[in-house]
Amino acid sequence: MEIQGSPDIAKRIRTIAGRLSLDYIDTRRVICMRTLHATSRARARIWGFPRMWQMALGISPHYVIEVLSQHYDHLSDDDKTRTLIHELMHIPRNFSGALVPHKGRYKRIDRGSIEKLFATYKNGKDSDL
User: Fold this and answer.
1) Which of 9, 22, 46, 104 has the fewest CB atoms within 10 Å of its CB?
2) Structural domains in the chain?
């Protein structure tokens, strides 16, 4: 398995967060990586940085969004955007380093909620993706 930085994904994340007014997401602290030859079936995943590690290392909350090249790179631009919206939805409003589950008490991360945000994204003015 090979892991590399992914500035193209970081640019997409900044664009998506800006267009969807996800102001609570500090995109400077969302690190984007691309994995080649991973065995997972996921298109992408998000990694949080738990409070215990933040305190132990003296580092502020960060997130890593990993795209798995063999499942992500061939997608259409719209599906890539949907995938990244899904990953961003796992970041809580307090940007604590924790992750929001798919089925929470007050929020669900499912196809319907992703499509709703995707429609908002598509209604944005500029298309710099």
Assistant:
1) 104
2) 2-122 (3.30.2010)
